[in-house]
Amino acid sequence: MTMNRRKAALDALDIIISQAYVESEEEPDDDSMSDADYEQDVSSSSDGDEPSDAEMGISLTANFVGADGTRWEDQPVMQGRRQAVNVMRAAGGLSAFGRRQCGQTALSNWRAFIDDQFLDTIVECTNEKARSSCSQFVTDRQELSAYIGITLLIGVYKGRGEPVRAIWSKSEGRRCISQFMLLKRFQLLTKYLRFDLTNTRATQRLKTKFAPMGSVFDKWEQKLCRPFIPYEYVTVDETLVPFRGRCSFKQYMPSKPAKYGLKFWSLCDAKTAYCIHMQPYLGTDQGACRNIKLGTSVVLNLTSRLDAGRTVVTDNFFTSFDLLLELRARKLGLVGTIRKNRREIPPEFTAKKSEAGSCIFGFNAYATLVSYAPKKNKRVVLISSEHCEGQTHAQTGKPEIITTYNQGKGGVDHLDKMCSEYTSRKRTLRWPKIVFQHMLDVTAYNSFILWCEVTGSVHVNRRQFIKMLGAELCNGELDEKGDIKLFPDTVAAMPGKRMRCRQCIANKTVQRCKQCAAPLCINCASYNCQNCTV
């Protein structure tokens, strides 16, 4: 029985082999093509528009393959620098607008971001809020500039956690600040300060959650990139502005010192930490689906007006191979850490077992991938469109990609550190005011960078610059020692009956100008009478 089955199987195998031999005789194999046919086939394939993999410098057999099919070689594919990505078309520094606008004074650099039109918008919204509250409070552009100057000076003198009344105290206060405005006037301006019209807020809220800021933030953000051209490397990262009040898009970030606050996406120059663009993160609006490629869309939006030849440095939240290709199409480079679960990374680059100091390189026609182990069994993966070869540092043994990343990753972090050093933020339950105070801190730092570019100063005390800026906003000045000049007292309470205020005609007061004895109420009194000069 077994012998019969084996014989039947052998007979069937002979039949299959004979049929295959007959078909091979009827249809010649590709190897049997003549030389003329082979040359014709090669010429027809070369007439196409798309170059072959060999012409692109890519071998037909890849050493590493990612989960999505991305191929990587263990040897460099292209030699030299990629001109379209790495060559800067415009040098970094002051732009043509910046050279015209900025000057030797701190106020001229400040005006490049916050001009009279910007202040008039806030004055209009503030006065409208006071009228809707049945108040007789009215402010103007000059008083708002003094208010901003006082806010900056409070940050210079570390008065963030100090009560406002203590700053205006005659015994323990700071006369250099309180001389520019009365306490009650400062409190009223803080109370009614608004950035949008109350009657249009309900309609604007249907469009965006950022409606209480009106058009103030958009106008300010558009002016950040005008006076300054970034250098070779720029940084994209997130900024958390501390805030614990009620806000629909407040974020919780346990890795940040403040934990709770408002999150902004920032684009800064890596060399000077100059803020070029800033966008608020408002979360998902009205139950919309989450954007899977949020990091990619953020980087593309922030770099939409960036000059060619710059290299963007990002962390693993933003970096991906798709983002690298998008930036290359805009003639921009990318260097950054990349998450190990990305599908374009081969499994050899994420192996758990690794010796300290070991590294693996992967190359293709668009990028260079490196997996470096700073410690045993711990790897970090980076990708770069700027580097073509797997070069390492002679002393430390680190890849050159990591050295470049370390030099350019701290732009946004340095900006946050500088803003928090002399911040004008004070405790409040209104998130628009927190956003406005953060705008003042960023503007003060950007003005300082522009002032250094104009004057050519390298080692300058930033605290002294902010003090000079605050004094100029309040129509004051500094003395030879760098301190704010004090005004002599020109308003004092004098004995006599109460008289109607000469300026507003609404209130009665016993205060008189020391020089002309004109009555001035507490709301209208200043240290410079309108009819007198000191």
Structural overview:
The strands form 5 sheets. Strands 5, 6, 7, 8, 9, 10, 11, 12 and 13 form a 9-stranded mixed sheet that branches. A two-stranded antiparallel ribbon has the order 1-2. The chain has 18 helices and 17 strands. Strand 12 (368-375) and strand 13 form a beta hairpin. It folds into 3 domains: 93-206 and 423-473, no CATH class; 232-414, no CATH class; 489-534, no CATH class. It starts with a helix and ends in a 21-residue tail after the last strand. The model is unreliable at 20-61 (pLDDT under 50). The longest helix is centred in the N-terminal third of the chain and has 25 residues, at 2-26. Helix 7 runs antiparallel to helix 18 (462-473) and helix 16 crosses helix 17 (431-455). The chain has 534 residues and is an alpha+beta fold.
In terms of topology, how is this protein built?
Elements: H1 2-26, H2 35-46, E1 64-65, E2 71-72, H3 83-86, E3 93-94, H4 96-101, H5 106-110, H6 116-132, H7 141-156, H8 164-167, H9 175-178, H10 183-192, H11 201-205, H12 216-222, E4 228-229, E5 233-242, E6 251-252, E7 260-269, E8 275-280, H13 294-302, E9 311-314, H14 321-329, E10 333-337, E11 359-363, E12 368-375, E13 378-384, H15 400-408, H16 411-421, H17 431-455, H18 462-473, E14 491-493, E15 499-500, E16 508-509, E17 511-513
Parallel strand pairs: 5-9, 9-10
Antiparallel strand pairs: 1-2, 3-4, 5-7, 6-7, 7-8, 10-13, 11-12, 12-13, 14-17, 15-16
- Largest sheet features: 9 strands, mixed
Cα distance, first to last residue?
A: 128 Å
Overall geometric form: elongated
Low-confidence stretches: 20-61
Count of helical regions: 18
The radius of gyration over CA amounts to: 34 Å
Structural class: alpha+beta
In total, the number of domains comes to 3
What is the arithmetic mean of pLDDT? 82
